[in-house]
Amino acid sequence: MGGKKKTFTFQRFSRKQLKILTWWRGTSPYAAFDGVIADGAIRSGKTVSMSLSFMMWAMSQFREANFAICGKTIGALRRNVITPLKQMMPALRCECVDKRAENLLVVRRNGVANYFYLFGGKDEGSQDLIQGITLAGAFFDEVALMPQSFVNQATARCSVDGAKWWFNCNPEGPFHWFKTEWIDRVKERGLLYLHFDMCDNETLSPKTLARYRAMYTGVFERRFIRGEWAAADGVIYSMFDPGRHIKADLPFAPEREFVAVDYGTYNPCVFLHFFACGQGETTRYFVDREYYFSGRGGEEKEHRTIQKDDGQYAADMLAFCGGRKDLPVIVDPSASSLMTRLRHEGFTQVLPARNAVAKGIAAVSAALAGDRLSFSPDCRYTLRELPSYVWDVKAAAKCGQDKPLKENDHCCDALRYGVYFDSLVNVSSRPSVSGHGAR
Ligand SMILES: Nc1ncnc2c1ncn2[C@@H]1O[C@H](COP(=O)(O)OP(=O)(O)OP(=O)(O)O)[C@@H](O)[C@H]1O
Ligand SMILES: [Mg+2]
């Protein structure tokens, strides 16, 4: 590849960031603490300050020691942490050799070397890999997105004298394990806790701040903008308003169209047809038609007790698409048999949907809140489901995970498959937000 290496341009650090940068120093009242947690709003300057501080601490306190740098996946870690960190090496007066095949950074300063092993907490086998090493420190970027078992495993490997733990994340629900096991117990665990909001990143312009704020509503606004560990309860699309979101005619000049599918044989099967225009957070969507078939029957007399197989669904899809086999069809990722069948029937763009539930719901919520998503009155089932799509509060209390109640959720699933998939593909003007949104 070659070319000049980019160096990181630092701007003024905020007071919070300076605290992250200095808490471990001999002169700090927190020097004896076993670690630090920074949580809070997106883009608030946590990762930049923490990765810089972690590297300064490691290189000044240890030699020939091993460290772990962990992200949700190796890919996310390299994008969000390692790329900027390597650009900071000249400022740190360090040299870094990236042994990509081993996921190892060897960092040297003044003849002292330390070894930084990269881990993706969610990657297959990461727990086995971290099992054998002895660590002098571990840095967890986006820790709330990692499995608890991986974090327990990694923290337990930090057995060198003076070892410290470094965590950062955005909030999830109040029953999330990182909240209850770590943040609620910082005192007994001897950890410094710092809460960030967007003003703690002084590099964000008022315009950028306003743009981020417009991206989230409801519980996501409370978490990602206000930085609260807020519960997801009640109606999911509380911003849905028939007066605003039902339109008799296509409200914009469409640039593309696609179909999204939630699949069921015994449960209902739904196809939604979308028109869309624009890119990034200004994209507009109009759902003009739906197909709803329930093998279980229900109030639709013609649907009673019959079940359809993939071949019949493929025929229905062809009719729904007006004979066009070139429309992108975004399918429930678990419905591999239907995808195979559609491809076999000659559909040229059969694509598995991304089933990141919370991110899909956040994308739909933002589009509704911004009046960028509307429906034809013909979408009867979808319009009936939208106000009754609710969070499963019991599941959240039990396992700390946010899920919609699995009831009358079929049109809503197809809706989030369509909107979220399109938002990932048409990202050119979207800011890259780590941890949510476009990632
Ligand atoms: N002192 C600084 N100098 C230069 N750039 C900075 C500084 N502080 C923050 N930034 C920039 O602001 C952006 C957001 O910072 P960062 O990624 O650290 O936030 P974050 O809190 O980790 O966000 P998220 O929760 O979304 O991961 C980044 O592009 C980062 O490079
Ligand atoms: Mg970050």
Specify the helix fraction band.
Answer: 25-40%
Low-pLDDT residue spans:
429-439
CATH-derived architecture of the largest domain: 3-Layer(aba) Sandwich
Count the E strands. 14
Looking at the structure, the CATH topology of the largest domain is Rossmann fold
What name goes with the CATH superfamily of the largest domain?
P-loop containing nucleotide triphosphate hydrolases
Widest beta sheet: strand line-up: 3-4-5-2-6-7-1-8
Give the topology string: H per helix, E per strand: HEHEHEEEHEHEHHEHHHEEEHEHEHEHHH
What is the alpha-carbon Rg in Å? 24 Å
Bound molecules: adenosine-5'-triphosphate, magnesium ion
**Structural class by secondary-structure content:** alpha/beta
| Average predicted confidence as pLDDT | 92
Assign an overall shape. elongated
Number of domains: 2
User: What is the straight-line distance between the termini?
Assistant: 26 Å
* CATH level 1 name of the largest domain: Alpha Beta
Largest sheet: 8 strands, mixed
What layout of secondary structure does this protein have?
Blueprint: H1 15-22, E1 35-40, H2 46-61, E2 66-71, H3 74-88, E3 95-99, E4 104-109, E5 112-120, H4 126-131, E6 137-141, H5 148-156, E7 164-169, H6 177-181, H7 186-189, E8 191-196, H8 206-215, H9 218-225, H10 242-245, E9 256-262, E10 269-277, E11 284-293, H11 310-320, E12 329-331, H12 336-344, E13 350-352, H13 357-369, E14 373-375, H14 380-385, H15 393-399, H16 410-425
The structure holds adenosine-5'-triphosphate and magnesium ion.
